Amino acid sequence: MRIAVASGKGGTGKTTIATSLALCLAQGHSALPPIFVDCDVEAPNAHLFLEPSLEQRQPVGILIPVVDEARCTHCGKCAEVCAYHAIAVLGEKTLVFPQLCHGCGSCTALCPEDAISETPDRIGVIERGPARHGIDFRRGLLDVGKPMAVPIIRELQKQIAPLPNQTVILDAPPGTSCPVVATIRGADYLLLVTEPTPFGLHDLRLAAQATQELGIPAGVIINRDNGTYPELDHFCHSTGLPILLRIPFERIIAEGVAQGKTLIDIQPEYREQLLSVFTRILEYTQGE
Ligand code: SF4
Ligand code: SF4
Questions:
Q1: Span 155-181, average pLDDT
Q2: Which residues, judged by CB distance below 6 Å to any ligand atom, belong to the binding site of ligand 2?
Q3: CB 190 within 8 A of CB 162
Q4: Which of 65, 74, 158, 184 satisfies CB 3.0 to 4.6 Å to 4 for a cystine?
Q5: Please, are residues 241 and 190 in contact by the beta-carbon 8 Å criterion?
Q6: Ligand 2 mean position to 160 CA, how many Å?
Q7: Distance (Å) from CA 116 to ligand 1 centroid
């Protein structure tokens, strides 16, 4: 089963929940420790909590077009097909802008003169290794200055091959843009971590909308719940999003997280609660 953990906005405690759930499962709920995938490739931080030994590294790249000016007739077909304005014909020159190119290959496929070849361009790296309690930890890391997270997330997704009954936990980037969609697509269940503020509700609405469009069942964990923002509950009830867990605001949790501790390192009693969240997800997905 694949569980994606997402939040409409950053700073809701999404990674704390995702890593805590992984530790709960690794500490005996199932025979196999889970696979944990940090898909927040622009700013991965799950390693701070799970302390993996990153032994394997694999570069990730995309294919960038290279124009053979001797064959090019400057017909402009490549520029017409490029949705990202990464290739342009200016008079007698056809220019490629690698920083805008998404490596989709359309220009190469459509060039009538066979004037375009492709060259690999590194955009980042995938790292993998064992983490606490045998968790199979993977993460992607976007190179500085490279704008495209999605090809790295796709490569991370491609390499996931869980054994029977092995759970996969995907820690999504914040927001609701393409990298989030690339992370949650194909998940069996989405855990949405939010906080009881107008900003939290605003971003939860966007995240819930994306989930609905993708047809992924979802539930909510309210972090730093202080019981003073009923609008969040109203939204969840009116949209049929189950509230699976409430974690009250406590200074001791905030201080522990700042020191790189997971929720269950700080307050082990949350282990049972997170396991019952997992059981509910399991029952829901198996009963569908
Ligand atoms: S499609 Fe091919 S021939 Fe036409 S401008 Fe582009 S590279 Fe040149
Ligand atoms: S590979 Fe795709 S994104 Fe890159 S220049 Fe060609 S059409 Fe544009």
A1: 91
A2: 65, 81-82, 84, 86-87, 101-107
A3: no
A4: 184
A5: no
A6: 27
A7: 7
Q: What is the pLDDT of residues 34-52, one digit of tens each?
A: 999 999 999 999 999 999 9
Beta bridge partners of 137: 36, 129
Average pLDDT over all residues of the chain:
91
Contact status, residue 44 vs residue 140, Cβ threshold 8 Å = yes
Q: What is the SS3 assignment for 161?
A: coil
Residues 63, 66, 71, 76, Cα dihedral to 10° = 80
Nearest atom in ligand 2 to the alpha carbon of residue 63 is 1
Distance CA 224, CA 200 (A): 11
Q: What is the DSSP letter of 214?
A: H
Rounded-to-integer distance, Cα 67 and Cα 128, Å: 36
What atom of ligand 2 comes closest to residue 108's alpha carbon?
6
Length reported for the chain:
288
pLDDT tops 90 at residue 257: no
Residue 103 CA: which ligand is closest?
A: 2
Chain-centre distance for alpha carbon 154: 10
Query: Band of the pLDDT at 288, cuts 50, 70, 90?
Result: low
Ligand 1 close to Cβ of residue 181 (< 6 A)? no
Helix boundaries (H) for the chain: 14-24, 47-50, 77-81, 106-110, 150-158, 178-184, 198-214, 230-239, 251-258, 263-266, 270-287
Q: Tokens 């000016």 map to which residue?
A: 69
Q: Which of 106, 116, 121 to mutate to test the pocket of ligand 2 (most atoms within 8 A of CB)?
A: 106
Q: Using CA atoms, how far apart are residues 267 and 20, in angstroms rounded to an integer? A: 11
Q: How large is the average pLDDT for residues 74-90?
A: 96
Phi, psi for 2 (deg, rounded to 5):
-105, 120
